[in-house]
Amino acid sequence: MPGWTNTPPARARSATRNGRPCSGWPTGWRLASGIERGHAMKIVVFGAGGIGGYFGAMMARASHDVTLVCRGAHLDAIRKHGLRIRHGKDEFTVSNLLATDAPGAELADVVICGVKLYDLQDAAQAIRPVVGPGTLVVTTQNGIVAHRILAEHLARGSVCPGTVLLSSHIVAPGVIERKTPTATLTLGDPDGKVSPAMLAFQRAGREAGFSVELSADIVSELWQKFIMLAATAALCCLSRQPVGPITGDARLREQLERAMREAASVARALAIPLPPDLIEKAMRFTDRANPDAKVSMLEDLEAGRRLEVEWIIGELCSQGRRAGVPTPIADLALACLGPYRNGNRRG
Question: Could you count the other beta carbons within 10 Å of the beta carbon of residue 290?
Fold first, then answer.
């Protein structure tokens, strides 16, 4: 990510390192930072936006050793006032964490990577100093490419693909609002292996108040979410509409379902196992969604920000060519959104 450095971070004014014990680690497991079983984990959240910041705050509230890497007004606010989390009528602030614009060089037990897809290569270089032989690097990005991008730059076996069921956004500098009743992070090794680090993080997350699920087929999990996301992003951005007007209009809803089936055809041609009723469930999910809900790509498009279109819709087109499956809806969306991929500036 342009602007990230590896200079030693400055501690937030209110930060502390309390190290209160946290039970439940696998017997005999020694964490990457050298902390013995039964003590707090060292967590680095690289890209402490709505998703990463939420998980980091929950881990800090449970007395884990948390570093949040972020920038700008968000960083300044966390340093001065701590990170505030809102969820309905509930609200809390965590100050026992380190807020910085650089991850430093102390090995982490877990790195939660929450930057945008287009920033992943730069992020990989920036987090390399904190990734050791036992470090677990968890991806939270949408799509199916994040773990592959990070794996090109980090130690073999350290990257663990993840998918998130959580809507959480920065609503003001230093303030994150969770909008969904559930907060679930599903992760897994592409080869189906379960490491002691994964089990330790699962236990820590559950004790901290969010769900960590271990999947035996994380590739299928990624594709299931990707199919719904790529289709919804395409229709929302092409029509410049949130979810409600699309599911409420017969013609748009038909195109949304076609786009999902198009993406699912690509997955099946690539031998990705999918539930037989995936599309029906996905359509029911969108029907029940908040009618004003917007995919992040539409929010970025409306705000004139850079788009992840190449890594989501473009990736579907690429996988379709690889599988020999036509993707006309995705091809159209990619072409129409291409001029906006770098923001309002064309090209």
Answer: 12
